[in-house]
Amino acid sequence: MSGNKITTPIAISIGDPAGVGPEIIAKGWEGRKAENLPPFFAIGDQKSIEHYWDGPTAIIEQPSEALAVFDHALPILNMYDGGDIAAGMPTLAGANCAFQALEMATGFAKSGAACALVTGPVSKIQLYSVGFTHPGQTEFIAERCGVSQNNAIMMLAGPSLRVVPLTTHIALNAVSAALTSRVIRQKIRATAKGLQRNFGIEKPRIAVAGLNPHAGENGKFGHEEDEIMRPALAALRAEGYDISGPLSADTMFHRDAREKYDVAICGYHDQALVPLKTLYFYEAVNITLGLPMVRTSPDHGPAFEIAGKNIASEKSMIEAIKMAYNAAQARANYLQQAA
Ligand SMILES: NC(=O)C1=CN([C@@H]2O[C@H](COP(=O)(O)OP(=O)(O)OC[C@H]3O[C@@H](n4cnc5c(N)ncnc54)[C@H](O)[C@@H]3O)[C@@H](O)[C@H]2O)C=CC1
Ligand SMILES: NCC(=O)COP(=O)(O)O
């Protein structure tokens, strides 16, 4: 049985107006027919789109108005003055605009006025300078949704690889202490549930990377595997999860190894994102699992140095829009079946 077809548009926060966000959203809209994209609208300062692009735009007051205009114009919900815009020259007004747009777009997705949230690229440094106190958008959106940090999962996905870092935006020397049995168990459970709900994978095959070289080499190169990871993974296996590991991280990302699992759980940000971005930088998508709504984003940042040059690839944004819609539909199907 499948759920009702989704009829609300996707909300896209524009991101930093001095970055490539406006350009890739506009290019995404240009590709809407060729890529068969669902209706979406941009949220932010309308100037930030019109500064870079002279295609057709339509100012809307409510998300639902996007549906009628999407075919012939890029709908924009104009909501904050981002100040003077200069490509590649971020300002505090622009960062404030990105922050407010993120807040409003999150609200639309939470309320159901939008079927999903796609966030445009922001500079975290810029956001911090205007009072953003979360490490990243993932943590901000989780808090706005009332979801604890251990249940909000940052997953990045490309065509043949999905990765989840168990710790996200923290220093490398803080990782070992943060990798507790509780974190490992909660995040793996939340990942499995997210793959069921958003991707329709009933029993995901989960591969877990060791933290140390050769997964610790029997304790010679570190004790996290034996003392924390193996007992946590054994407990999860006893609950019925399909888990392999801890595996040597250096040998689990080549093509044949990737076929053996649906998601790779990694200890820290770069252990997960280096293989993913090396393989799929221009097309990978960041999705937050564990929320009561769907949130995706392109895998890249604002790329200030190429903003305004019309050379940014829109592929990751397009994939983020597609994944957001497909996940929202899969979620609707899942919830209808569960009811
Ligand atoms: N979803 C988001 O909002 C993300 C934000 N960031 C933030 O971005 C800021 C800058 O970080 P960087 O490591 O410099 O990342 P970045 O992704 O902005 O840039 C890395 C490199 O990739 C290139 N690049 C990025 N997007 C591209 C595109 N669409 N087409 C062609 N080339 C592209 C850039 O020119 C640069 O050479 C940081 O504050 C970071 O936290 C990083 C990743 C995701
Ligand atoms: N490298 C991934 C990343 O930084 C994601 O950031 P955010 O979406 O949580 O802001």
What does it look like?
A twelve-stranded mixed sheet has the order 3-4-2-1-5-12-11-6-7-10-8-9, with helices on both faces. It folds into two domains: 196 residues, Isopropylmalate Dehydrogenase; 136 residues, Isopropylmalate Dehydrogenase, CATH 3.40.718. The longest helix is centred in the C-terminal third of the chain and has 24 residues. It is 38% helix and 17% strand. By secondary structure, the chain is α/β, with parallel strands linked by helices. The site of ligand LD2JLWAY has 6 residues, from α6.
* Global Rg: 20 Å
Beta fraction: 15-25%
What's the CATH first level of the largest domain? Answer: Alpha Beta
CATH superfamily of the largest domain: Isopropylmalate Dehydrogenase
- CATH fold-level topology of the largest domain: Isopropylmalate Dehydrogenase
Indicate the CATH architecture of the largest domain. Answer: 3-Layer(aba) Sandwich
Low-confidence spans: none
Tell me the number of structural domains. 2
Strand order within the widest beta sheet: 3-4-2-1-5-12-11-6-7-10-8-9
Describe the main β-sheet briefly.
Answer: 12 strands, mixed
Query: Would you list the SSEs in sequence order as H and E?
Result: EHEHEHEHEHHEEHHEHEHEHEEH
Q: What count of helical segments does DSSP give?
A: 12
Say how many strands there are: 12
Bound molecules: 1,4-dihydronicotinamide adenine dinucleotide, ligand LD2JLWAY
Structural class: alpha/beta
